[in-house]
Amino acid sequence: MTGVAVFGAKGRMGSEVCRAVEAAEGLSLVAALDVDDDLAAAASAEVVVDFTSPDAVMRNLSWCIEHGKHAVVGTTGFTEDRLDVLRDQLAEHPGVGVLVAANFSIGAVLMMHFAAQAAAFYESVEIIELHHPNKVDAPSGTAAATARRVAAARAAAALSAPPDATTQELAGARGASVEGVRVHSVRLRGLVAHQEVLFGAEGETLTIRHDSLDRASFMPGVIAGVRAVGERPGLTIGIEQILGVG
Ligand code: NAD
After folding, report:
1. Rg value, the chain, Cα
2. Which residues bind (S)-2,3,4,5-tetrahydrodipicolinate (predicted)?
3. Interhelix angle for 106-119 vs 141-156, to 10°?
4. What is the mean pLDDT of residues 110-130?
5. Whose CA is closest to 70, among 219, 241, 242, 234?
6. Which among 105, 129, 122 has a CA at the least distance from the CA of 188?
């Protein structure tokens, strides 16, 4: 049995993670902690899952690394500077693994992977991301990450920028440009989290679409991370390598 502690256990994601850990074979929930709880209550855990807040996560991870706990981290707000701090701390504690993933949805990760594969074959590409109206940021982090991966794949394939006249003339009015890839953001009641990557060529289009309908969609990725993190000392970014698609 692998003992798992959840930080942020009363939150939307953390409470879902507690249920998923309790239901997972070979995993045991040994601590469910939220703000004001003493982290020492996680002393018997082998792996910590953190879905707290950008303000809290670095202190939580320092505690984990100092105490030899592997960590699976879904909390957002990781800058390159923060990742460097983690790398430095992990270098002093070889054997400890930390997995930081901005998106634990296996479908979303595959959508980005397939989009990067297709990008090498199409000059024309645009992204539409659609979310509930309470989402504050636009474009979404996943859309920006997809655009960066598509742009990198286009550059590697030496594809030029989209040649369509309307794309050039209407650029400002047609959503944001992320590394030359246009991203359109829709905020609408009834939506949860959705994204389409559209590719176009003479006489055909290809659309890769992903729909998140429930927070449960993140749990298989989180549980896969919990099972894998102990085998991956140091810092791992994203679940692509764990899924074998990165
Ligand atoms: P939430 O506000 O519902 O929950 C956060 C919880 O953390 C709260 O219960 C809060 O009291 C608790 N908390 C705050 N500081 C703490 C501390 N020091 N120690 C322990 N608990 C503490 O938020 P949420 O929707 O569950 O999201 C949590 C984080 O996960 C956010 O950063 C969000 O962007 C991110 N997120 C990531 C993914 C992913 O796939 N990586 C998916 C969804 C959300």
Report:
1. 20
2. 132, 141-142
3. 30
4. 95
5. 234
6. 129
Phi-psi category of 230—alpha, beta or left, where left has phi over 0 and alpha has psi -120 to 50? alpha
Looking up tokens 């979404």 gives 140
Instruction: Read off the pLDDT of residues 15-65 as tens digits, 9 standing for 90 and up.
Output: 999 999 999 999 999 999 999 999 999 999 999 999 999 999 999 999 999
135 among known catalytic residues:
yes
Q: ipTM of the predicted structure?
A: 0.99
Pull the structure tokens for residue 76.
Answer: 């957002």
Is the backbone of residue 156 left (phi > 0), alpha (psi -120 to 50) or beta? alpha
User: If you count DSSP H runs as helices and E runs as strands, how many of each does the chain have, helices first?
Assistant: 8, 11
Helix axes 12-23, 219-229, angle to 10 degrees: 60
So what's the pLDDT on residue 79? 87
Check if 7 has its Cβ closer than 6 Å to any atom of ligand 1.
yes
Minimum-distance ligand 1 atom for the alpha carbon of 59: 18
